[in-house]
């Protein structure tokens, strides 16, 4: 807690050419929220990757990962070709702990505290679940209106100062943000939108002819008449699968990938859904280790391996996005892609090459 503030100041001082610390807002108990911006100085207009940690107080591995991520980027950006390539085009905005009040409360009073610390009912109950408080089908499903509940969604969308500060900031920057990442635990999932509906997200069709996934093969005929057919492919999901494969490559840890409402549960008012609804093309919730044997109280000896493997997943996503939006000289689509894109609604499959 206090240590995270010290760490932020420290890391900024010792890496002042790359990192700056910025004010985001105040929590309900008047603590200051800061985010870190990692930007390589350049004349180019760049895009943004946003990552937040610590929306839920008790998920201590989450802020640990944000810190690990920043440390690794700073240590390796000169030597790691992937990192140095994406930093030419992308700025990284990292919010190490959104719910600082709750986080401190979980250290000092109640290890399993989840929500923020806003008082309700004249101080007879405390806390709103910040991940049910965003303006995405707010209050509709997977929430409680009872302030004693762990999933109390607050008195309205963005009723909490923490949610409001983050949402207003992201809203202002949204046209530049390509990817929204939010880190939670536990369960070992990479979750895509939506939690509030089982409808597929908006960018399902973009995958057609994407060089990062190799050539496409048509397995069903394109009739050319069915304009109502729903695109089957989901780009966010495919990228998440690449990420989970990279993660598994490190220590064999298995992650499940899928739309929140289909593989986990339905929830409304999540930051992930909201980010995608306002137009950010890629939006993911990570649920880090483990699958329940220790749950929120992950043993210290798992912190480093969890961070290492998660780093691979996150940099896989960022790298993919970098290459998609800044192809810069790389070989683009080859023959066949034009024909494919005219046939969006047919069933496609990837050839494994
Ligand atoms: C937070 O700060 C504001 C203005 O400085 C003050 O009015 C308010 O009472 C403070 N709240 C708490 C919980 O300390
Ligand atoms: C809160 O306390 C005030 C003053 O004691 C009282 O008038 C009010 O009815 C209480 N509200 C609730 C929701 O209990
Ligand atoms: C929530 O979104 C709705 C519909 O997009 C909008 O009308 C409303 O003003 C938003 N509320 C807040 C608190 O931002
Ligand atoms: C809210 O939840 C608490 C704890 O489960 C319960 O005791 C209380 O009766 C509930 N209040 C309402 C208004 O349902
Ligand atoms: Zn969480």
Automatic annotation (TrEMBL):
Keyword Cell membrane listed? The answer is yes
Which positions are catalytic residues?
A: 287 (proton donor/acceptor)
Q: Name one GO biological process term.
A: proteolysis
Q: Could you tell me what this protein is called?
A: Carboxypeptidase O
- Could you tell me which residue ranges the Peptidase M14 domain spans? 1-321
Gene Ontology cellular-component terms listed:
apical plasma membrane; extracellular space; side of membrane
InterPro entries assigned: CARBOXYPEPT_ZN_1 (IPR057246), Peptidase_M14 (IPR000834)
Species the sequence originates in: Aquila chrysaetos chrysaetos
Q: Does the keyword Glycosyltransferase apply?
A: no
Biological role? Carboxypeptidase which preferentially cleaves C-terminal acidic residues from peptides and proteins. Can also cleave C-terminal hydrophobic amino acids, with a preference for small residues over large residues.
Membrane topology classification: Lipid-anchor; GPI-anchor
Compartments annotated for it: namely: Apical cell membrane
Instruction: Determine the domain of life of the protein's source.
Output: Eukaryota
